[in-house]
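Example 313, ligand zinc ion.
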Amino acid sequence: MAPLVLIAASVIAAPHVVIDPPQPRLGDPVVVYVAGVEHGGEWGSAEAFGYSFTLQPAGKTVLRAFVAIPSDIEPGPYPLTVSHPRADAAWPAATLQVQKRTFETAHLRVAKKFTKRKRSDALKARLKREQAQIRLVWTATPTPVRDLGRPARPTKTRITGHYGTARVFNNERRSVHYGMDFGGRIGTPVYATATGKVVMSSMRWGSGGTLILDHGGGLFTTYFHLSKRRVKLGQTVTKGQRIGDVGRSGRVTGPHLHFGVALRAAYADGAKAGQIRSLYVDPAGLLMLKIGRTPPSPSSVAEAKPSPRKHAE
Ligand SMILES: [Zn+2]
């Protein structure tokens, strides 16, 4: 009877890749599940777009990775490959079908000091220090996978700015907006979008009162311009817990929350191979996901498929 048992087992546990959402757009975060594999608790990586994303054990026969779709590539099919110490020919590869989207341009006025090209030595030193501090957040070994469920909005206020918007400050300095803005008066509560650990709490030049949460598996959320930070470095917070207050600190036009979603990535090849960076993805994409230890059922993947979004199209 042994052969029959083997057949049954292979039907249940056929290795497969589940990509959520199945048709991601430019700038979207994607959850990649590699299911039906004997991973033996070992880590691997999912590679796409010239980056390598950590692939960690999520369930007994499931590995999970967060993959960022860059916002500045051409739409179309891109290969996703899996590297793992136990991978053999039976382990599947997959294709990411990247969908097109267009981003808006916005004109903003901010205090002159924020667009000045000449920066004082003191400011240069401060920015260098701040950059080194944030690098430590991205380069730390990823914390284990968590069952995050459906992430929640970080405030109850309305969305005032979208991901990917090209911004022109005082008609001179240009940048891309890599987050989502929420309106709100100073003191409006800001909540954790999902369970995580506080890995940064500091006052920074551009982002002002700043909190960063590590949600495990290489997923981070950032909360900028806060007037008050209500949690401590190293503290674990749960989804919906109040972590701070809306403020107007840093480079801002007025009080609001800038909410960002960063995924940890390493350059897969070239001169920078192995070097770690973060890739900011669309928070709106994160808020549409359900992030578990096992792949969502095909029906719930279909439900979570981006219905036409009301903004930034
Ligand atoms: Zn913003």
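Summary: The radius of gyration is 20 Å.
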